[in-house]
Each structure stands twice: as C-alpha cells, then as structure tokens.
Amino acid sequence: MLITRPLSYRLALPARYPEDAGALVLDSPHSGTTYPPDFAPSVPFAALRTAEDTWVDDLWGDAVDMGVPLIAAAFPRAYIDANRSPEEIDPQLLAEPWPQPLPESPKVRLGKGLIWRMLDDGTPLYDRKLSLDEVRHRIEACWKPYHAELGRLLDQAHARHGQVWHINCHSMPSVAGAYATDKPGLVHPDFVLGDRDGTTSDPAFREFVAAWLRERGYEVSVNDPYKGVELVRAFGRPTEGRHSLQIEVNRKLYMDEVSLRPSEGYGKLKNDLRGLTAALLDWTRAQTA
C-alpha cells in the first residue's frame, strides 16, 4: 500500500497501482482530522470533532489491499466541506459581500454550506466574520485539490475499463441533529444509499449494494433522507459509464457517538464492508467483461 499525504488529502493506493486496480474508486470527504492553524473557531476541539465522519476511511480501508484506491480529505469538514458546491457560501459568515451572486441553498439556511456556520446542535462555530481571502484560501488549498485528485483517479479507472464505479463514503448519527437536516430528530436506518434518484448512477449499482446489505440483516433506505450531494453530482454521469453512489452508514453500528471510540460492533462492520467491496469487485468485473 502506498500512502501520500498532501495538504488537501490522504491517498492510499494498492501496492501494484494502477496495474492491478479494478474499476472501483472510494472517497471519504469528511474524515479529515488535520485542523489548520488559521481555522480559529470559537468552540472546543471536542465539539468540532462531532462534524467528522469519524473512522469512515478506516472502515473502508481494507479495500486498498484489494486493488481499490481510497482518497480521504485531510482537512476537517467544519473547516470546508468537500461535499458542497463552491457556490454554497453563507453570506452570514462573511465580513463583506461575496462579489458574485449566491444561489439559494437549503444547507446554507441550516448553517451547513461550504463553510459551516454552526454545528448540528446549533452552536455557532465562530465569534467573528470570515474575510473573502480566508474563504478563497480554503477553496484553493483544500476543496479544489481534493476534487481534482478524485477526478484524476476516476478518469484513470474509466480509461482502463471503459466504466468506473465510485463510492462516496459517509457516516450519519443515529438520530438527526436539530440543525443537521430538514428532518431534525429523524431516527436513521443502518445505511442510506443515494444516487440523486438514479441520476448519478445506473440504478443496478445501488440495487446490488442494497440487496447485499439487506441479505446480511441491515436496514437500508434508498435516496431518503439523503440523496447524495456535490461529489456524486459532479462525478456521476451514468450515460458515460461513470457511476457514483453515496453510502451513509449509521454511527451506532460501530462507535460510541459521545466518546467517538469504536464499539464492539466495529470489527463486524469493517469485515462486512470488506465483503461488500469484494462482491462489488466481482460485480464490476462482470460488467466490463
């Protein structure tokens, strides 16, 4: 396994990459734990960590030894969210108006735009306004390199195999926070699969994953309450053989949601995700044979 660690992302590649790589690529945009010194939030570090998709890159990490590249954000989600559009800028955070018009965004209204204004419980992240230069720096140093590298990995796999299947890996709390979504207090299933109602992937990809998980006793929801956001939207083009699926896993399956420590279920879930990866590799090979 080869691991590279630029400022924006951590990239884990199979030992014989790209010679032995299949047509599957994983990314974990919310696993970053390197908090930049210019962040300067007004909340304690422990509170900031609740925004992370804690352990998600490790849970899927066995895929790398199976020939699957895995890219994970190095920067934390609360600093800048790689799974939001660069236009989802919250004007309430800014010290001066953004020079271009900003579109309406439900997530921005919740304080969860490209740069978060508050945590899931409504706690403000800052006791100050952000300068335009600060926002631009985060986009240039973190958001753009992450998207560019993920795009490169997907292009490589597509060039080798004629198709590529992309899993956008996430975690979700067992119960939605008050300011996390438009459905506060919602009790989440074990998994939510999102392909933006079939627009970012051939539905067969989603249905294969859903069936595999359900056969092992997991409760799986499709496109509800999470349909997939910016990364699957940007890279999923099924008419071109580019299939992107967001997978949300419930944190109650593998960790204590207060201490963030792995629970007794961690090993089972990690083993099941390894099994799912193996099954997907066989399935994708059959699609490209």
What does this entry look like structurally?
- This is N-formylglutamate amidohydrolase.
- InterPro entries: N-FG_amidohydro (IPR007709).
- The chain is of the alpha/beta class and 289 residues long.
- The protein has a single domain, classed as Aminopeptidase.
- Helices cover 29% and strands 15% of the residues.
- The mean pLDDT is 95.
Topology summary:
Elements: E1 2-4, E2 9-13, E3 24-28, H1 45-48, H2 56-59, E4 70-73, H3 106-109, H4 132-161, E5 164-172, E6 191-194, H5 203-215, E7 220-222, H6 230-235, E8 242-250, H7 266-288
Parallel strand pairs: 3-4, 3-5, 5-8, 6-7
Antiparallel strand pairs: 1-2, 2-4, 6-8
Strand order of the largest sheet: 1-2-4-3-5-8-6-7
Taken from the alpha-carbon principal axes, the silhouette is: globular
| H/E series | EEEHHEHHEEHEHEH
Q: Classify the fold: give the CATH topology.
A: Aminopeptidase
Intertermini distance: 26 Å
**Major β-sheet profile:** 8 strands, mixed
Assign a percent range to the helix content: 25-40%
Query: How many domain regions?
Result: 1
Mean pLDDT across residues: 95
| CATH architecture verdict | 3-Layer(aba) Sandwich
Q: Return residue spans where pLDDT drops below 50 for at least 5 consecutive residues.
A: none
Binned strand content: 5-15%
- CATH class category name: Alpha Beta
**Radius of gyration computed on alpha carbons:** 18 Å
Quick one: CATH superfamily?
Zn-dependent exopeptidases
GO molecular function: hydrolase activity
Pfam family, one: FGase
Protein name: N-formylglutamate amidohydrolase
Keywords: Hydrolase
